[in-house]
Automatic annotation (TrEMBL):
GO terms for molecular function: 3'-5' DNA helicase activity; ATP binding; DNA binding; four-way junction helicase activity; hydrolase activity. Residues 92-276 form the Helicase ATP-binding domain. One of its GO terms (biological process) is double-strand break repair via homologous recombination. It comes from Mycena rosella. Belongs to the helicase family. RecQ subfamily. The keyword DNA-binding applies. This is DNA 3'-5' helicase. InterPro entries: DEAD/DEAH_box_helicase_dom, Helicase_ATP-bd, Helicase_C-like, P-loop_NTPase. PROSITE patterns: HELICASE_ATP_BIND_1. It is an enzyme of class 5 (isomerase).
Length: 518
């Protein structure tokens, strides 16, 4: 259960050491785009630093200058300043110095800033960011436009075909393009406009960096695994950009899910150079409690979700903000309708419980997500497909429920070079329970610390990999008085657990024993 998503707060050191600009010619070049008043202020504050430290402190002061207009001195003294930490700076310096890089860090680490800093330090260049979902693209555009004042646009099948817009892109007037991978190559017999624009050397020569967000999809969505076709083959073809773009263009892979075998696939697919950089931070979320509960009669028994909305429900009860992930779209609507019916009649038309998946209209998805993400929104219980959670960071979520074992949680680690995806491989007709990831089964059934199992799978060996800030770490520590019921308003549904087995089919007599029809 996600108990309050926390985000780090950064602050500027009150006393900056002196620095002489002649000691860092590289640093001087990065300041050429600053106007005289801001450069004078920068020289006044910064004195005598090594090159990397100089860039660090320069970024502290440069970033506020690119925010929406306001007095520069005021921007230094108010809250909301953006101060990169060491990992973000290393990734940014790699991109600006021609090195490929992989950034492995949890959601909320600040991977967006790893893309923004090179754009701010290299005016006149273009960065392509590969993004998974339209919903995620819209969020990223909002961040880059509002936080960093960087002109940004999404490129997908819904992008307008306006000649004026594409002319601006071709001239490099829009420095940041957030692209779905299908726009780089032939798609359903059609060559997208961006793919054609890449053949224009005047445009492609301006592209200095390609950032692949949620890069693990190169493996999970773009690779043929155990004979099953790739879900989105365009992800597996991103390495073709190496041929289409200049040799000086750097590639940057960013993800929270990059254990060794996935990283090796990404490294090979993208053709990372020998001097590529890996920046790895802990993927541990210390504000999460890991717990499992056996469903009574499987997912079709929605009484298992009565703990979310108790009966009777009445004010002043306050419903927690909860996301329920499902493996099927039809299940999202069934569950949202069922939970909504448990509310008192005056509350049932407020949209407190809503479903969310890719078949819904863009207007509905935008309204639903905005309400759920807002601190004063009406949507409190979001029933969504697992893909909806890719890369999205919603603050103040109190609980995350995987209704059934997720298929994508992980692959088997016994053979890291060829992970096993499901327990039913090798069977002609595996039942549904046998098609889930074996690592998901291992995580759910392990008798010990689930945080440790997750860290081992993700190869997280950092010092804080097992830290937690909640009342409990997980339900795998006997004697810690863990109680799942304390995390919900209603009682946990329990009964004699009946294992769901595959339905028995009628058996026919052998042909030789059957009587002739004529």
């Amino acid at each position: 259960m996600d108990m309050h998503a926390m985000s780090p707060h950064h602050s500027i050191h009150p006393q900056l050491p002196p620095f002489y600009l002649h000691k860092s010619l590289y640093f001087v070049r990065k300041l050429e785009h600053l106007d005289v008043p801001r450069l004078s202020m920068l020289l006044f504050v910064i004195r005598k630093l090594d090159e990397e430290d100089a860039i660090r402190y320069a970024i502290i002061l440069i970033l506020p200058t690119r925010l929406p207009p306001r007095p520069f001195i005021l921007s230094l003294s108010q809250k909301g300043k953006i101060v990169p930490h060491q990992g973000q700076l290393e990734a940014s310096l790699a991109s600006t110095s021609g090195r490929d890089s992989a950034v492995i860090a949890r959601t909320g680490y600040g991977k967006t800033l790893c893309i923004a800093i090179p754009l701010l330090l290299e005016p006149g260049t273009i960065t392509l960011t590969v993004s998974l979902l339209k919903r995620l693209q819209m969020m990223q555009v909002r961040d880059f436009m509002q936080k960093y004042n960087i002109p940004t646009i999404t490129i997908n099948k819904d992008t307008p075909q306006s000649p004026e817009l594409w002319a601006k892109m071709a001239k490099g007037e829009i420095p940041h393009l957030i692209v779905q991978p299908e726009q780089f190559r032939m798609n359903h017999g059609h060559l997208p406009r961006l793919a054609r624009l890449l053949n224009d050397r005047g445009f492609s020569s301006k592209i200095t960096c390609v950032a692949i967000d949620e890069a693990h999809n190169i493996y999970t969505a773009g690779t043929v695994i155990d004979g099953r076709p790739a879900f989105r083959p365009a992800w597996g073809a991103l390495g073709e950009l190496r041929v289409k773009l200049p040799k000086t263009t750097t590639l940057q892979a960013l993800s929270a899910t990059m254990p060794g075998y996935i990283y090796r696939t990404i490294h090979q697919n993208l053709g990372f150079r020998s001097d590529s950089l890996i920046i790895s931070a802990s993927i541990n979320r210390p504000n999460i409690i890991y717990a499992t509960h056996v469903l009574v009669d499987g997912r079709r028994n929605l009484h298992n979700l009565h703990c979310i909305i108790p009966d009777p429900f009445h004010p002043p009860m306050c419903l927690p903000k909860i996301v329920i992930f499902h493996g099927e779209k039809i299940e999202t609507s069934n569950v949202s309708q069922y939970l909504n019916a448990r509310l008192p009649e005056p509350f049932q038309k407020l949209g407190i419980c809503r479903h969310y998946h890719s078949d819904m209209s863009p207007e509905y998805l935008e309204a639903t997500y905005s309400s759920f993400a807002s601190s004063d929104g009406l949507v409190l219980i979001l029933s969504a497909t697992s893909g909806a959670g890719e890369g999205l960071n919603v603050p103040e979520v109190n609980g995350v429920i995987n209704f059934g074992l997720p298929k994508k949680v992980a692959e088997d680690k016994d053979d890291p070079d060829r992970p096993l995806l499901s327990t039913g491989l090798g069977k002609k007709n595996p039942i549904k329970q046998e098609r889930v990831g074996t690592a998901a089964v291992r995580l759910a059934t392990c008798p010990g610390c689930k945080r440790a199992v997750y860290a081992k799978f993700m190869e997280d060996e950092s010092d804080d990999a097992l830290d937690f800030t909640c009342l409990w770490c997980c339900d795998g520590h006997p004697g810690n008085r863990f109680s799942l019921a304390k995390l919900f308003l209603g009682p946990i549904h329990t009964a004699n657990i009946r294992l769901v087995t595959k339905r028995k089919r009628n058996k026919y007599r052998p042909v030789k024993d059957r009587q002739a029809l004529v």
